[in-house]
Amino acid sequence: EDQVTQSPEALRLQEGESSSLNCSYTVSGLRGLFWYRQDPGKGPEFLFTLYSAGEEKEKERLKATLTKKESFLHITAPKPEDSATYLCAVNWGAGGTSYGKLTFGQGTILTVHP
Amino acid sequence: TAGITQAPTSQILAAGRSMTLRCTQDMRHNAMYWYRQDLGLGLRLIHYSNTAGTTGKGEVPDGYSVSRANTDDFPLTLASAVPSQTSVYFCASSATSADTQYFGPGTRLTVL
Fold this sequence. Notes:
The complex is a heterodimer of chains A (114) and B (112).
Chain A: E1 4-7, E2 10-14, E3 19-25, E4 30-38, E5 45-50, E6 56-59, E7 62-66, E8 70-75, E9 84-92, E10 102-104, E11 108-113
Parallel strand pairs in A: 2-11
Antiparallel strand pairs in A: 1-3, 3-8, 4-5, 4-9, 6-7, 7-8, 9-10, 9-11
Chain B: E1 4-7, E2 10-13, E3 19-25, E4 31-38, E5 42-49, E6 56-57, E7 64-66, E8 76-78, E9 87-94, E10 102-103, E11 107-111
Parallel strand pairs in B: 2-11
Antiparallel strand pairs in B: 1-3, 3-8, 4-5, 4-9, 5-6, 7-8, 9-10, 9-11
């Protein structure tokens, strides 16, 4: 079954303690992989789009990477304001009805303690 | 710019009643989407529209209908609400069906 799996489900870090979140996918015909940040009570906020294996994107303390089967979201020297749920989603399919529809992972809840 | 607005912010609805959740975007995006987010199930696509005048079914379309009369608006209607439709509903849009989707703030719906 085509799916997107994120790990860990929850991650607690001390401020300044770098770590990585994982998103693995078993879909065919990847068109794009997206990372979002979601704060409680709010809609997902777009972070990155990755289209092909080997691609990397950076924004402040965040860096997203992509391989053929997974993506990592690296967080360097996190701060308490980085605490949020991080969602991974894939746009996949050979066209037709799957085109443009995202499949989301369950998310990783990140908590950064001061 | 406002981006995507959704209304209402929250609503409590009696089972069997109908309701329309409103979504408006000001980015002139061609594609729009409705998702529901439930604890433990993540975000699931209800309906989508790749361009004005067309709509399609997502993963969980039963009990919901949509219309896309123009580019900016994409209302979601529950004809006869049931408790299992209690959820947080998010509207999203993208320039085309292949582009990044941007989300609205959500509507929290409780069906009693």
